[in-house]
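Known limitations

Structure tokens in this collection are predictions and should be treated as such. Users comparing against experimental data should check residue numbering before alignment. To illustrate the layout, the record for Glutathione S-transferase, N-terminal domain protein is reproduced below. The input appears on top and the generated tokens appear beneath it.
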Amino acid sequence: MKKITLYTNPNSRGRIIRWLLEECGADYEVVPVPFGENGTKSADYLAVNPMGKLPAVKYGDAVITETAALITFLAELFPEKNLIPAVGTAERGEFYRWLMFAMHAEYAFMDKWHGIPETPERKRSIGYGSFDEVVATLTKFLHGKEYALGNHFTALDLYLSGLIAWGIMRAQVLDMDSELGAFMKRHAARPAFAKSQALDAELAKQMGLE
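Generated tokens:
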């Protein structure tokens, strides 16, 4: 396997990718990147990701960015961990469906957090409809389930849990005492999550972010 390098900041979506790498049992190197001119906007980092966004992963000489792409790529890279349904199955299609849905849900949470009005014109122009529709749809999908797909943990559970945690603790637009909160808490009890959190806490200390 080629060398894996994670470019991250503890205050970024890199936390989700670190969690996934720990679930995979991956051997990886971490490059801490501060925000701003000396980090994400520096010439060195823009050579990695011209958008100046985190996280990014180098796999050998190849660069992969965008969290959903990284989730899929890394889950496929470690097939023995069974973190993504097999290619060509209906379950794989469902995995893609709800992963893409979660990307739109993030924008719904962000808009709600910033108080952007949901006018009829805006609802027609955005990809997610409305905040209430997103929450209701996701809640219905996860209702009564331990796992989003099938009978075991996948990278979709990880991505959804990270999104829900952000919606509860950062954006404060979701309720911890909801079905979504309960789903997130179950998966946050996994050992790989605890390890990734501890590693990011140590990295935050090293970067002077505390």
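For this record: The CA atoms of residues 29 and 95 lie 28 Å apart. The radius of gyration is 17 Å. Please report discrepancies through the issue tracker.
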